[in-house]
């Protein structure tokens, strides 16, 4: 995994979690790592265990030069669509950085340019660049924690396990119990047909 795209610039890695979910927010993180951070086992959040991600979160937060995390809720997702909501979440995570980056490394192939900061879109960037991997871990764990909290309010959907993704169990719960205020109404929800 590459430590930097452009070693002479202050880089922020950006990634989001929860784009494909039926319920809950999309969450983005932006992370600026120092040249020598010494964080072992950084990788795409999907490639490491939940336990390992949870161990890495406080380490990333402690060692990062700066980090920001942003949540965009289901109502806003329905209003502006999931792609725009993902970009908005990334912009807000960048806004939250207390150090201004000179280059943004974006996981994926599309991004709405952030004012006055250059960016590079990198497909599978979370498995190629350490700052994007760190952002992917922070975004995923922040979102998973949020969905565990929501689970307490609506346990029949088992969000503590499926985190709002369209699992067979989640779809079945939608058929049996209907849509909640936490579901994304603009998504195809697997409810009873009339």
Give the tags:
globular, 194 residues, 6 helices, Nucleotidyltransferase, domain 5, five-stranded mixed sheet, alpha/beta
Task: Describe this structure as you would to a colleague.
This protein has 194 residues and is an alpha/beta fold. The radius of gyration is 17 Å and the shape is globular. The protein has helices at residues 50-63, 74-80, 82-95, 130-153, 159-162, 168-177, and strands at 11-17, 26-32, 66-72, 103-107, 118-122. The protein has one domain (11-177): Nucleotidyltransferase, domain 5, CATH 3.30.420.10. The longest helix has 24 residues, at 130-153. Strands 3-2-1-4-5 form a 5-stranded mixed beta sheet. Strand 1 and strand 2 form a beta hairpin. It has 6 helices and 5 strands.
How is this fold's topology laid out?
Layout: E1 11-17, E2 26-32, H1 50-63, E3 66-72, H2 74-80, H3 82-95, E4 103-107, E5 118-122, H4 130-153, H5 159-162, H6 168-177
Parallel strand pairs: 1-4, 4-5
Antiparallel strand pairs: 1-2, 2-3
Helix pairs in contact: 1-4, 2-3
GO molecular function: manganese ion binding; RNA binding; RNA-DNA hybrid ribonuclease activity
Subcellular location: Cytoplasm
EC number: 3.1.26.4
């Amino acid at each position: 995994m590459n430590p930097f795209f452009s070693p002479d610039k202050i880089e922020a890695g950006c990634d989001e979690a929860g784009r494909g979910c039926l319920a809950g927010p999309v969450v983005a993180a932006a992370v600026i790592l120092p040249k020598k951070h010494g964080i072992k086992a950084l990788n795409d959040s999907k490639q490491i265990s939940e336990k390992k991600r949870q161990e890495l979160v406080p380490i990333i937060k402690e060692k990062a030069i700066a980090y920001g995390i942003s949540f965009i809720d289901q109502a806003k997702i329905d209003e502006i669509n999931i792609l725009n909501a993902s970009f908005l979440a990334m912009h807000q995570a960048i806004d939250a950085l207390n150090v201004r980056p000179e280059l943004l490394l974006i996981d994926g192939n599309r991004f709405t340019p952030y004012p006055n900061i250059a960016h590079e879109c990198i497909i599978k960037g979370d498995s190629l660049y350490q700052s994007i991997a760190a952002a992917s871990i922070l975004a995923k764990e922040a979102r998973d924690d949020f969905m565990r909290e929501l689970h307490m309010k609506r346990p029949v959907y088992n969000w503590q396990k499926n985190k709002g993704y369209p699992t067979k169990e989640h779809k079945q719960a939608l058929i049996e119990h209907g849509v909640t205020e936490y579901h994304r109404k603009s998504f195809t929800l697997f409810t009873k047909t009339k």
